[in-house]
Amino acid sequence: MLTGLIGFSWWSVHNDHTDWHIWSGCAILTLLIFRLLWGFFGSSTARFSSFVRGPQAVLNYLRGGWNGIGHTPLGALSVVALLVAVAIQVSLGLISQDEDGIYAGPLAGLVSSDTSDKARDIHELWFNVILGLIILHVAAIIFYRLRGRPLTKAMITGKAKIDAGSPPMRRGKWWVALLCLGVGIGVTRWIIAGAPPFGASAP
Amino acid sequence: MRRVTIAVGMIAVFAAAAVAAPLTKGRALAIMHQRHEGMEKIGDTNKLLRREITSSSPFVPAIQSGAATIAGLSVKANGWFPRGTGPELGKTGARPQIWQTPQDFIAKLHNFQGAAQAFNAAAKSGDMNAIKARYADLNGACKACHDKYRMDMHH
């Protein structure tokens, strides 16, 4: 879904649909908030505390000494990098305005016009960082598939064959997922309305 | 009456441009430069206007000054699009379609000029509701033309 929205954002802004681009960015923001919350309250493999490891663990994994489930210590770096990069991109978009001043992100009114213009320039450049991470991400999936470990299905269903001796995964609760999504939608609505006291910059 | 005058004036300008001898390169480039500066000024003014108008405590004199700037520049736009000032000559955000469907372009330019004058009148009245409504119209007019006739221009 995130991939689709990022693709759609790219397409819409290059085809004179800046209004769709802004809505797509808001949808990405919702997903992002959901994933961050899910990283604290979600299934055991989704929690940051379960997969974000230090450099020692990454080295250990590369030497073959890891038999957990979920994101590998190296994959965790990729997950964190993607989330941070997308969060930066969304934040820049929120305060951007287009070159002609016809469109503005929902929070553009909170910063000066010059800042909004600069944010747009960086927003445009930063996309290359995201593109780089996406290429790396897809390359890694292909690499693992070639080595006999299909990952895409496990990402969606949360089901995978696990090696003997690995601790099983604890599933997230559906109502917690719903709650996280609700908070994501709520916070996004609040931002669309212009954030702090509603109407510091109503859209 | 004013609208009619603008319309007649613009048709005259375009007709003259169509039959007159082609522009010299230097003159055409000068017009393109003028157009770019003018459009940029309109855009920058619009960015400041949006901030004022969407602010919780809008500063009306700033809105009035911005509205007057855009209204003044919108009239000057009559002379900004003679044939021969498109991307074939130099770097510009103007799409060649401007000169392929000139009637439609003139109608959209006319809409923009009318909206700029109406917004200016609303700003002078100081009535925030009218200002907001006419500002939305103005943005619609900008957008309608830019969607069709403006392209990215990287410096």
Describe this protein's structure.
The complex is a heterodimer of chains A (203) and B (155). Chain A is mostly helical and 203 residues long. Chain A is built from eight helices and no strands. In chain A, 64% of the residues lie in helices and 0% in strands. In chain A, helix 1 (2-13) packs antiparallel against helix 2, helix 2 packs antiparallel against helix 8 and helix 5 (73-94) packs antiparallel against helix 6. The radius of gyration of chain A is 19 Å and the shape is globular. The two termini of chain A are 26 Å apart. Chain B has a single domain, classed as Cytochrome c/b562 (Four Helix Bundle (Hemerythrin (Met), subunit A), Up-down Bundle), CATH 1.20.120.10. Chain B is built from six helices and no strands. In chain B, helix 2 packs antiparallel against helix 3. The relative contact order of chain B is 0.14. Classes of the chains: A mainly alpha (203), B mainly alpha (155). The A-B interface holds A 16, 97, 99-102, 104, 108-109, 113, 116-117, 194, 197, 199-203 and B 39, 43-51, 54-56, 139, 142-143, 146-147, 150.
